[in-house]
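Incident log, structure service

09:12 report received: a user says their structure output differs between two submissions of the same chain.
09:20 pulled the input from the user's history:
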Amino acid sequence: MAETLSERFAMVDGRVGDQPGAWDVAGELPRDLLVELGAAGILCAEVPESFGGLGLSSADNGALTAHVGRHCSSLRSIMTSQGIAAATIRRFGDKAQRTRFLGDLTGGQLAAVAFSEPDAGSDLSAMRTSVVSDGDTVVVTGEKKWTTGARYADLLIVLGLDANGVGSAVVVPTNAPGVHLDLVESPLGCRAAGHMNLRLDEVRLPASYLLGGGGQALGMLFTTALSYGRMSVAWGCVGIIRACLDAATRHAATRTQGGLPLSDRQLVSRHLADLLVAEQVSTQICADASRSWDAGSPDQAVAAVLAKHVSAGHAARGAATAVQVLAAAGSQDGHVVARAYRDAKLMEIIEGSNEICQLILAEHALSLTR
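09:34 re-ran on a clean worker, output below:
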């Protein structure tokens, strides 16, 4: 691709501008913007050029994700969903499926990935959605909760179990008979990301929609999808921290108290220092994870967990710090730090909660001593 990374940044800046606050209040993103960014390859930028994508490295895609996340976590959430869908298709789809569906995702169609169920979040053994082959068709039945981006999606990547209890991933068009979508009203954060609850009532599709013919280990499906998602969320958290650092430093430098700018007050200066440390640490740990990803390291999944866990924690604490610095000035719906405060908290839950991340990291630490 001829475009440079800075030109893609400029495209995002020009199309997003100062609109994210209004999107957050309205709880909706402009679909034409999502289609435009999707057709430009920005929503799943690691897809190779041979499939119509930009072919970015994890490091460059991370920089792009952080830039979008600095503007709007809801928009970044769509990037994450589209990227997870593309990564799942790349990993498990056959050649014809990769050509067809990746071409769709880089041609303007939008995708979401359906993981969680009413009784199944981190506990994969509780999954009940069935993906059963029936001759030259596949039948999908079940419920999914909090499917990010499904409000805008043309395609859903649905994870479930086949008749033998083995994992499968199937591409489900949202307009297929039997697909029912209900909007999650007033979520705490990422309010414009289009979270939906899904009901799939015997959705019958051609067998060619079953990625790789099915039969993959459920743990492998989740690890592939979640590793990409964790990388995307981690870099998005870098963007949140940068937005908070910018807002807090600008406010502290211009707001006076007792004839002095807030930045001259030592306790306020400490907050600014903490934000800078959070931004630097999160950027470096994400960069390290991207290097691991680009090198194909066997530790890339653990590196993604570490980056997500550290960056999400810094984003949540950093957003709280920014609200403290701006006080009433940053406490109204739509303001960048008010949005960040709500959005960042969700980052400590999605793609593996803090506690799940800690369990994974503890197991990794124990493995190093064996």
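09:41 both user submissions now match this output. Likely a transient worker issue. Closing.
09:42 reviewer note: The longest helix spans residues 218-254. The chain is about 50% helix and 15% strand.
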